[in-house]
Specification:
There is one protein chain. The protein has eleven helices and 13 strands. The protein has 322 residues and is an alpha+beta fold. The chain folds into three domains: 80 residues, 3-Layer(aba) Sandwich (Rossmann fold), CATH 3.40.50.20; 140 residues, D-amino Acid Aminotransferase, Chain A, domain 1; 83 residues, Dna Ligase, domain 1 (2-Layer Sandwich). Strands 8, 9, 10, 11, 12 and 13 form a six-stranded antiparallel beta sheet that branches. Strands 4-7-5-6 form a four-stranded antiparallel beta sheet, with helices on both faces. A three-stranded parallel beta sheet has the order 2-1-3, covered by helices on one side. Helix 3 runs antiparallel to helix 4. The mean pLDDT is 90.
Protein backbone atom coordinates (compact mmCIF):
# COMPACT_ATOMS: atom_id res chain seq x y z
CA UNK A 1 0.00 0.00 0.00
CA UNK A 2 1.01 3.64 -0.30
CA UNK A 3 2.40 5.81 2.45
CA UNK A 4 0.29 6.38 5.54
CA UNK A 5 -0.29 9.95 6.60
CA UNK A 6 -3.87 10.29 7.80
CA UNK A 7 -5.07 7.87 10.49
CA UNK A 8 -8.47 7.51 12.12
CA UNK A 9 -8.47 6.14 15.67
CA UNK A 10 -11.76 4.37 16.29
CA UNK A 11 -12.66 4.16 19.96
CA UNK A 12 -15.50 4.44 22.46
CA UNK A 13 -18.59 2.64 21.24
CA UNK A 14 -21.45 1.40 23.40
CA UNK A 15 -20.10 -1.78 25.02
CA UNK A 16 -19.31 -2.42 28.67
CA UNK A 17 -15.68 -1.63 27.79
CA UNK A 18 -16.40 1.90 26.54
CA UNK A 19 -14.48 3.70 29.29
CA UNK A 20 -11.38 1.58 28.74
CA UNK A 21 -11.62 2.10 24.98
CA UNK A 22 -11.74 5.86 25.47
CA UNK A 23 -8.48 5.69 27.43
CA UNK A 24 -6.85 3.42 24.85
CA UNK A 25 -7.93 5.67 21.98
CA UNK A 26 -6.71 8.82 23.69
CA UNK A 27 -3.29 7.25 24.25
CA UNK A 28 -2.95 6.00 20.68
CA UNK A 29 -4.15 9.31 19.20
CA UNK A 30 -1.62 11.29 21.24
CA UNK A 31 1.14 8.91 20.15
CA UNK A 32 0.20 9.27 16.47
CA UNK A 33 0.33 13.05 16.65
CA UNK A 34 3.74 12.89 18.32
CA UNK A 35 4.90 10.44 15.65
CA UNK A 36 4.04 12.98 12.97
CA UNK A 37 0.82 11.50 11.59
CA UNK A 38 -2.38 13.42 10.99
CA UNK A 39 -4.90 11.75 13.28
CA UNK A 40 -8.57 12.06 14.17
CA UNK A 41 -10.31 10.48 17.15
CA UNK A 42 -13.69 9.06 16.16
CA UNK A 43 -16.18 7.62 18.61
CA UNK A 44 -17.69 4.54 17.00
CA UNK A 45 -21.17 5.39 18.26
CA UNK A 46 -21.06 8.62 16.24
CA UNK A 47 -20.28 6.95 12.91
CA UNK A 48 -23.40 7.09 10.78
CA UNK A 49 -21.79 5.74 7.60
CA UNK A 50 -18.71 3.53 7.69
CA UNK A 51 -17.87 4.73 4.17
CA UNK A 52 -16.86 8.07 5.68
CA UNK A 53 -13.65 6.37 6.82
CA UNK A 54 -12.46 6.07 3.21
CA UNK A 55 -10.82 9.49 3.49
CA UNK A 56 -8.20 7.94 5.80
CA UNK A 57 -5.09 6.00 4.83
CA UNK A 58 -5.41 3.72 7.84
CA UNK A 59 -7.74 2.96 10.75
CA UNK A 60 -6.30 2.17 14.16
CA UNK A 61 -8.88 0.09 16.01
CA UNK A 62 -8.83 0.97 19.71
CA UNK A 63 -12.45 -0.13 20.05
CA UNK A 64 -12.83 -2.76 22.75
CA UNK A 65 -15.87 -4.94 23.25
CA UNK A 66 -18.12 -6.56 20.67
CA UNK A 67 -18.09 -3.60 18.27
CA UNK A 68 -14.34 -3.71 17.79
CA UNK A 69 -13.51 -7.34 18.48
CA UNK A 70 -16.24 -9.58 17.07
CA UNK A 71 -15.07 -9.21 13.45
CA UNK A 72 -17.94 -7.15 12.03
CA UNK A 73 -15.98 -3.88 11.87
CA UNK A 74 -13.03 -5.62 10.25
CA UNK A 75 -15.32 -7.18 7.65
CA UNK A 76 -16.83 -3.79 6.83
CA UNK A 77 -13.40 -2.20 6.48
CA UNK A 78 -12.20 -5.03 4.24
CA UNK A 79 -15.26 -4.63 2.00
CA UNK A 80 -14.40 -0.95 1.61
CA UNK A 81 -10.70 -1.60 0.99
CA UNK A 82 -9.66 0.35 4.09
CA UNK A 83 -6.48 -0.78 5.85
CA UNK A 84 -6.64 -1.22 9.62
CA UNK A 85 -4.72 -2.48 12.63
CA UNK A 86 -4.82 -6.06 13.81
CA UNK A 87 -6.39 -9.33 12.76
CA UNK A 88 -8.91 -10.03 10.03
CA UNK A 89 -12.60 -10.60 10.58
CA UNK A 90 -12.62 -14.40 10.99
CA UNK A 91 -9.82 -14.45 13.58
CA UNK A 92 -11.58 -11.72 15.56
CA UNK A 93 -14.86 -13.61 15.43
CA UNK A 94 -13.24 -16.79 16.74
CA UNK A 95 -11.17 -15.21 19.50
CA UNK A 96 -14.05 -13.02 20.68
CA UNK A 97 -15.96 -16.18 21.57
CA UNK A 98 -14.23 -18.10 24.38
CA UNK A 99 -16.10 -21.29 23.53
CA UNK A 100 -14.95 -21.25 19.90
CA UNK A 101 -11.40 -20.37 20.94
CA UNK A 102 -11.14 -23.20 23.41
CA UNK A 103 -12.68 -25.76 21.07
CA UNK A 104 -10.15 -24.88 18.37
CA UNK A 105 -7.24 -24.98 20.81
CA UNK A 106 -8.38 -28.33 22.22
CA UNK A 107 -8.66 -29.77 18.70
CA UNK A 108 -5.09 -28.60 18.02
CA UNK A 109 -3.85 -30.15 21.31
CA UNK A 110 -2.92 -26.76 22.79
CA UNK A 111 -3.32 -26.68 26.56
CA UNK A 112 -6.41 -24.76 27.71
CA UNK A 113 -8.53 -25.30 30.84
CA UNK A 114 -11.50 -27.67 30.51
CA UNK A 115 -14.89 -26.04 30.07
CA UNK A 116 -18.62 -26.63 29.93
CA UNK A 117 -20.73 -24.26 27.81
CA UNK A 118 -24.30 -23.10 28.40
CA UNK A 119 -26.48 -20.92 26.19
CA UNK A 120 -27.52 -18.71 29.13
CA UNK A 121 -27.47 -18.47 32.93
CA UNK A 122 -31.05 -19.18 34.08
CA UNK A 123 -32.26 -19.50 37.66
CA UNK A 124 -32.58 -23.27 37.24
CA UNK A 125 -28.85 -23.45 36.49
CA UNK A 126 -28.10 -21.46 39.62
CA UNK A 127 -30.08 -23.92 41.74
CA UNK A 128 -29.09 -27.29 40.33
CA UNK A 129 -26.09 -27.20 38.05
CA UNK A 130 -23.33 -28.01 40.55
CA UNK A 131 -24.66 -31.55 40.82
CA UNK A 132 -24.70 -32.23 37.07
CA UNK A 133 -22.53 -35.16 36.11
CA UNK A 134 -20.92 -32.89 33.50
CA UNK A 135 -19.01 -31.28 36.35
CA UNK A 136 -17.55 -34.51 37.71
CA UNK A 137 -14.32 -33.78 35.84
CA UNK A 138 -13.84 -30.68 38.00
CA UNK A 139 -14.37 -32.41 41.33
CA UNK A 140 -11.60 -33.44 43.70
CA UNK A 141 -10.18 -36.90 43.14
CA UNK A 142 -12.29 -39.63 44.74
CA UNK A 143 -14.96 -37.09 45.76
CA UNK A 144 -18.36 -38.71 46.24
CA UNK A 145 -21.28 -36.48 45.24
CA UNK A 146 -23.53 -35.79 48.21
CA UNK A 147 -26.43 -33.53 47.27
CA UNK A 148 -27.29 -32.91 50.91
CA UNK A 149 -24.08 -30.97 51.48
CA UNK A 150 -22.98 -27.51 50.39
CA UNK A 151 -19.58 -28.64 49.11
CA UNK A 152 -19.74 -29.51 45.39
CA UNK A 153 -16.36 -31.18 45.51
CA UNK A 154 -14.11 -28.75 43.68
CA UNK A 155 -11.90 -25.95 44.91
CA UNK A 156 -12.97 -23.38 42.34
CA UNK A 157 -14.32 -23.02 38.84
CA UNK A 158 -14.76 -19.83 36.84
CA UNK A 159 -17.98 -18.53 35.34
CA UNK A 160 -17.35 -16.43 32.23
CA UNK A 161 -19.48 -15.01 29.43
CA UNK A 162 -18.64 -16.59 26.10
CA UNK A 163 -18.37 -13.14 24.56
CA UNK A 164 -17.09 -10.15 26.54
CA UNK A 165 -13.82 -8.65 27.68
CA UNK A 166 -12.06 -6.76 30.48
CA UNK A 167 -13.18 -9.46 32.94
CA UNK A 168 -16.80 -8.26 32.85
CA UNK A 169 -19.18 -10.81 34.47
CA UNK A 170 -16.39 -13.19 35.46
CA UNK A 171 -16.87 -14.91 38.80
CA UNK A 172 -14.94 -17.42 40.89
CA UNK A 173 -17.29 -20.20 42.00
CA UNK A 174 -16.52 -22.50 44.94
CA UNK A 175 -19.93 -23.40 46.37
CA UNK A 176 -23.64 -22.71 46.11
CA UNK A 177 -23.37 -19.37 47.90
CA UNK A 178 -20.77 -18.01 45.47
CA UNK A 179 -22.88 -19.23 42.55
CA UNK A 180 -25.92 -17.45 43.97
CA UNK A 181 -23.87 -14.27 44.40
CA UNK A 182 -22.65 -14.53 40.81
CA UNK A 183 -26.25 -14.90 39.62
CA UNK A 184 -27.25 -11.76 41.53
CA UNK A 185 -24.30 -9.68 40.32
CA UNK A 186 -24.32 -10.86 36.71
CA UNK A 187 -25.17 -7.94 34.42
CA UNK A 188 -26.54 -10.05 31.56
CA UNK A 189 -27.68 -13.64 32.13
CA UNK A 190 -29.32 -14.05 28.72
CA UNK A 191 -26.19 -14.90 26.77
CA UNK A 192 -23.80 -17.79 26.46
CA UNK A 193 -21.54 -18.67 29.39
CA UNK A 194 -18.76 -21.12 30.06
CA UNK A 195 -17.81 -22.74 33.33
CA UNK A 196 -14.05 -23.18 33.22
CA UNK A 197 -11.58 -25.31 35.13
CA UNK A 198 -9.59 -23.46 37.80
CA UNK A 199 -5.82 -23.65 37.25
CA UNK A 200 -4.03 -22.99 40.50
CA UNK A 201 -0.93 -21.09 39.52
CA UNK A 202 0.67 -17.91 38.24
CA UNK A 203 -0.92 -15.63 35.67
CA UNK A 204 0.99 -14.44 32.62
CA UNK A 205 0.33 -12.51 29.44
CA UNK A 206 2.34 -12.43 26.23
CA UNK A 207 2.23 -9.59 23.73
CA UNK A 208 2.80 -10.56 20.10
CA UNK A 209 3.63 -7.94 17.46
CA UNK A 210 4.66 -8.87 13.92
CA UNK A 211 5.32 -12.48 14.89
CA UNK A 212 7.59 -11.54 17.81
CA UNK A 213 6.80 -12.43 21.41
CA UNK A 214 7.59 -9.51 23.66
CA UNK A 215 8.88 -10.34 27.16
CA UNK A 216 6.14 -12.18 29.07
CA UNK A 217 4.52 -10.36 31.96
CA UNK A 218 3.58 -11.95 35.24
CA UNK A 219 0.44 -10.35 36.63
CA UNK A 220 0.55 -9.99 40.41
CA UNK A 221 -2.69 -8.79 41.94
CA UNK A 222 -4.07 -8.56 45.47
CA UNK A 223 -7.48 -9.34 43.99
CA UNK A 224 -8.67 -12.95 43.80
CA UNK A 225 -7.97 -12.87 40.07
CA UNK A 226 -7.15 -10.34 37.34
CA UNK A 227 -10.60 -8.75 37.29
CA UNK A 228 -11.79 -5.37 35.98
CA UNK A 229 -10.60 -3.54 39.10
CA UNK A 230 -7.17 -5.14 38.96
CA UNK A 231 -6.81 -4.40 35.25
CA UNK A 232 -7.83 -0.76 35.12
CA UNK A 233 -8.40 0.77 38.55
CA UNK A 234 -6.20 -0.66 41.28
CA UNK A 235 -2.73 0.77 41.71
CA UNK A 236 -1.72 -2.38 43.61
CA UNK A 237 -1.60 -4.57 40.51
CA UNK A 238 1.99 -5.30 39.48
CA UNK A 239 2.90 -6.06 35.87
CA UNK A 240 6.35 -7.60 36.32
CA UNK A 241 8.70 -9.00 33.73
CA UNK A 242 8.31 -12.74 34.17
CA UNK A 243 11.13 -14.54 35.94
CA UNK A 244 11.21 -17.77 33.98
CA UNK A 245 13.92 -20.28 33.19
CA UNK A 246 15.15 -20.48 29.61
CA UNK A 247 13.14 -23.67 29.14
CA UNK A 248 9.96 -22.08 30.57
CA UNK A 249 10.49 -18.97 28.47
CA UNK A 250 10.76 -21.06 25.34
CA UNK A 251 7.60 -22.99 26.24
CA UNK A 252 5.46 -19.95 27.03
CA UNK A 253 6.51 -18.24 23.80
CA UNK A 254 5.84 -21.37 21.75
CA UNK A 255 2.36 -22.00 23.13
CA UNK A 256 1.51 -18.30 22.70
CA UNK A 257 2.65 -18.15 19.08
CA UNK A 258 0.98 -21.50 18.34
CA UNK A 259 -2.35 -20.32 19.77
CA UNK A 260 -2.10 -16.96 17.97
CA UNK A 261 -1.43 -18.64 14.63
CA UNK A 262 -3.94 -21.47 15.04
CA UNK A 263 -6.72 -18.90 15.52
CA UNK A 264 -5.54 -17.05 12.40
CA UNK A 265 -4.46 -13.87 14.16
CA UNK A 266 -2.08 -11.36 12.61
CA UNK A 267 -0.20 -8.12 13.26
CA UNK A 268 -0.65 -7.83 17.00
CA UNK A 269 -2.48 -9.30 19.95
CA UNK A 270 -2.12 -10.59 23.48
CA UNK A 271 -2.27 -14.15 24.78
CA UNK A 272 -3.30 -14.69 28.41
CA UNK A 273 -2.07 -17.80 30.20
CA UNK A 274 -1.83 -19.62 33.52
CA UNK A 275 1.10 -21.73 34.69
CA UNK A 276 0.00 -24.60 36.89
CA UNK A 277 1.82 -24.62 40.23
CA UNK A 278 1.72 -28.42 40.40
CA UNK A 279 2.91 -29.37 36.91
CA UNK A 280 4.55 -26.20 35.57
CA UNK A 281 2.48 -26.53 32.38
CA UNK A 282 1.15 -23.41 30.65
CA UNK A 283 -2.53 -23.12 29.71
CA UNK A 284 -3.97 -20.60 27.25
CA UNK A 285 -6.90 -18.74 28.78
CA UNK A 286 -7.81 -16.43 25.91
CA UNK A 287 -6.50 -14.37 23.00
CA UNK A 288 -7.22 -10.67 22.65
CA UNK A 289 -7.08 -9.16 19.16
CA UNK A 290 -7.64 -5.55 20.33
CA UNK A 291 -5.69 -5.35 23.59
CA UNK A 292 -5.91 -2.38 25.91
CA UNK A 293 -3.53 0.51 25.35
CA UNK A 294 -4.10 2.42 28.60
CA UNK A 295 -1.39 3.34 31.09
CA UNK A 296 -2.38 0.18 33.03
CA UNK A 297 -2.19 -2.06 29.96
CA UNK A 298 0.13 -4.98 29.39
CA UNK A 299 1.11 -4.31 25.77
CA UNK A 300 2.95 -1.00 26.34
CA UNK A 301 4.37 -2.36 29.59
CA UNK A 302 5.80 -5.39 27.80
CA UNK A 303 7.28 -3.11 25.18
CA UNK A 304 9.01 -1.11 27.90
CA UNK A 305 10.97 -4.25 28.86
CA UNK A 306 12.53 -4.06 25.38
CA UNK A 307 13.31 -0.38 25.85
CA UNK A 308 10.41 0.70 23.63
CA UNK A 309 8.39 3.80 24.41
CA UNK A 310 4.59 3.81 24.15
CA UNK A 311 4.90 5.68 20.84
CA UNK A 312 7.34 3.12 19.45
CA UNK A 313 4.95 0.29 20.34
CA UNK A 314 2.15 2.08 18.45
CA UNK A 315 4.44 2.48 15.43
CA UNK A 316 5.31 -1.22 15.50
CA UNK A 317 1.62 -2.14 15.55
CA UNK A 318 1.00 0.00 12.46
CA UNK A 319 4.01 -1.43 10.63
CA UNK A 320 2.90 -4.98 11.48
CA UNK A 321 -0.59 -4.31 10.14
CA UNK A 322 0.28 -3.01 6.68
Amino acid sequence: MGSINKIAVIYGGTSSEREISLLSGDGVHKALIELGYESDLIDYKNISNIKDLKIYDFVFIALHGFEGENGDLQKDLDNLGISYSGSKSQACKLTWNKKYTKEILEHAAVNTPKMIAFSKFPDSLRKDFLWLSSFDAFRRENYVVDQTGADPGFEYIFLKPQEDGSSVDIFKISDFNSLKEAYQKCTNRNRGFIFEEFIDGKEFTVTIINGECFPPIQIISKNEFYDYDAKYISNDTVLAEAKLSDIELGRIKKISIDAFNILGCKAWGRVDLMQCNKTGEFYVIEINTVPGMTNHSCVPKSGSFLGLSYNEVVKRIIDASI
